[in-house]
Amino acid sequence: MEKKMGRPRSEKTKKAILDAAYELLLENGFPSMTVEGIAEKAGVSKATIYKWWPNKAAVVLDGFFAATELLLEVPDTGSAKEDLILQADHLAAFLTSPKGRVITELIAEGQSDEKVAKEYRDRYFNPRRLISKHILERGMERGEFRQNLDLELSIDLIFAPLFYRLLITGEPVDSAFVRNLISYAFAGLQGVKS
């Protein structure tokens, strides 16, 4: 039997670190945070944090996801259009909330820090893209779309305008916008390939 090295992770210590990371994220924002600050607030050493997480982004994102408990629900109303409206509307509501604004801050930070970009892509966006892909595949099976639909491009077509408004124009991202966006996207997705 292999002997384990070091002490096992204490759940109490882990929770203190994640709580500290989340609180500092909301108080100061990601760029101002440091592993030293997280360690001090949690009452642990920097070495303890680095033993369990490879970098600041990893511990901060763990803290964020632990605190916000973002459940990945897959809507299934029987209509791919309605399912995507629900998914996009929930995403828009979250991203425009105080907690969700952290994601847009992390996107901005990820432009100059590849580790941050990789973390939020792997842990936040990629799982949601898989849900969108599943919804579109179901729609194809039910005959709601043409069979040669490019799923990845369709996901970009649907969600890119939402992020364009959030990150560039600052225009409203509300339920009316989401419904119009999906309706316009569906007009193209249901059509004949040009």
TrEMBL record:
SUPFAM superfamilies: Homeodomain-like, Tetracyclin repressor-like, C-terminal domain. Residues 11-71 form the HTH tetR-type domain. Keywords: DNA-binding, Transcription, Transcription regulation. Residues 34-53 bind DNA. InterPro entries: Homeodomain-like_sf, HTH-type_TetR-like_transc_reg, HTH_TetR, Tet_transcr_reg_TetR-rel_C_sf, TetR_C. The keyword Lipoprotein does not apply. It holds the Pfam family TetR_C_11. PANTHER family: HTH-TYPE TRANSCRIPTIONAL REGULATOR RUTR, TETR-FAMILY TRANSCRIPTIONAL REGULATOR. This is TetR/AcrR family transcriptional regulator. It comes from Lacrimispora xylanolytica.
